[in-house]
Amino acid sequence: QVYLVESGGGLVQPGESLKLSCAASGSILNMNAMGWFRQPPGKEREVVATITSGGSPDYADSVKGRFTISKDNAKNTVYLQMNSLKPEDTAVYYCGARLTYRYSYWGQGTRVTVSS
What we know:
This protein is mainly β. Helix content is 0%, strand content 55%. The chain is built from no helices and eleven strands. Strands 2, 4, 5, 6, 9, 10 and 11 form a seven-stranded mixed sheet that branches. It has a four-stranded antiparallel sheet with strand order 1-3-8-7, with no helix packed on it. It is globular. It starts with a strand and ends with a strand. The relative contact order is 0.32.
């Protein structure tokens, strides 16, 4: 079992920044990747950014150049630095963990609201 806890969400104005954190615990030695996903109001969950155990990142086109995913192996934590936030970034953001081929474990989510 893998346990994920997100934090760092909040209410910000367009153009501002937030940094999300996801702390992992449990059977984490088998994780080969972690990622951030989001679910806007009334829409389906979508991938935002992923990072492999080797440190290779990937981003959705909608966030390229604005968001940065990183991890601290010593703290078992993955981060999502979100800059130049837009109203369309408003969503509940979830942290996910991949153990084999699929993202199978999820955190409780942290809400990000971008509004003027």
